[in-house]
Amino acid sequence: MESGGNSLPSGSDGMKRKISYFYDPEVGNYYYGQGHPMKPHRIRMTHALLAHYGLLQHMQVLKPIAAKDRDLCKFHADDYVAFLRGITPETQQDQLRQLKRFNVGEDCPVFDGLYSFCQTYAGGSVGGAIKLNHGGCDIAINWAGGLHHAKKCEASGFCYVNDIVLAILELLKIHERVLYVDIDIHHGDGVEEAFYTTDRVMTVSFHKFGDYFPGTGDVRDIGYGKGKYYSLNVPLDDGIDDESYHSLFKPIMGKVMEVFRPGAVVLQCGADSLSGDRLGCFNLSIKGHAECVKYMRSFNVPLLLLGGGGYTIRNVARCWCYETGVALGIELDDKMPQHEYYEYFGPDYALHVAPSNMENKNSRYLLDDIRTKLLDNLSRLQHAPSVPFQERPPNTELQERDEDEDDGDERWDPDFDMDVDSNPLNRRVKSEYAEAEHKDAESYHKHLDSRRDITAFKEIACSKVSGSGVDPVAMDEPFIKEEQDNLNELSDHKSR
């Protein structure tokens, strides 16, 4: 199955792709709070590496248009979006009931500029989808996106707005079928839930399963109704290495591409599946992680690359920089160039980090069993579904801002984005750089695990559908909405 794609070398002789890279220089200023593992500052660090490796000059660099209320409401509930727009650190004590209702305040804290942050990262992902739809690029990249846990009516797992669902809805305006692939260590539950009953979106998630957030993503969760067999879950155990990971990823994704034949692919590149992540427990190298990007690139299908998790921020920046090079077909020198965040990468100052010697708890028998089950599920799909378009939403205008228009020729300047430290939020980020990255990690592990609820997933899906009364995705077919007897059957299934 490894020959499923037209394999391309990742070096300078690889086939070139036209890349659109979305980046807002303010994104690194947002700050979840002291001790919180999620640090948007990692996006600025990634950008600095891209600039000093000379990659920006090989891409179209675009500043995303902030997503508007109506854009977010194409998936999210109106009252939830209104809540995000209005809540501030100063007013949150007056809205305790709303905070609880929308699951905001613990893992997903209220911080300065929260709504603007959501608009920024969602705008980049939707902008990438629009760019792909218009044929303006072969690959679109938004490392600030990929927040896959957010639900229609609530925040979850550091995620407030599900930019991935919004981007997929945009791609569905042009493409009959869209494939979503998730290599974050956590299950892509929010995206799977949104498209669980449609055959137009296939979701494939490779993740740690067991006593681990969010507790969903069993191999037996395969979709429902029209979506049966269009959700694939690859549950993994601690310590999985490159070889074991690819023994599943390549045959499964090769078969998916053969059977499903998507018009576009969205790949969430969460870097918490890397070895040594602050909240993770996998043992992938940066090259092993990037091999997934290289493999999906090889199929020559429009590709949207998104960020996601990743909590050892120096390794996140390393990974996404290297994967940008893979997207471009440019091999990067392991010796890191001098730049303003150089001190983060000591003592070796190298792009790549060796995996650890941790035990791989994924036995050959377990891996073979998972692969057999999933390939069997895929064999049940007789052909790629074809859906006629009826009264589909109008195409979104291509109106992203080019950095050339905003800032002259700044996008080629290695120092672009490095003069924004006057922002008080950024000063707080800078001051926290010295904080040891392992501080509070153990407490977050315990907190995330304690909030795990394996069975609540289907109940949430049903309650949101039955309570909404509207088509949640505003497309030509009701992706999530099903007849009441189907919902009852799904409720029975979850209690098995």
What are the salient characteristics of this protein?
9-stranded mixed sheet, disordered N terminus, Arginase, Chain A, single chain, globular, 9 strands, 496 residues, alpha/beta, 8% strand, hydrolase
Question: Would you give an account of this structure?
Answer:
The protein has 496 residues and is of the alpha/beta class. It has a single domain (19-353, 360-380), classed as 3-Layer(aba) Sandwich (Arginase, Chain A). It has 16 helices and nine strands. The chain has helices spanning 41-52, 69-72, 78-86, 96-101, 114-133, 163-171, 189-194, 242-260, 286-297, 313-328, 364-379, 403-407, 424-432, 441-450, 456-468, 484-494; strands at residues 19-22, 60-63, 139-142, 178-182, 201-208, 231-236, 264-268, 303-306, 401-402. It has a nine-stranded mixed β-sheet with strand order 6-5-4-7-8-3-1-2-9, sandwiched between helices. Helix 5 packs parallel to helix 6, helix 8 packs parallel to helix 9 (286-297) and helix 8 (242-260) packs parallel to helix 11 (364-379). The longest helix has 20 residues, at 114-133.
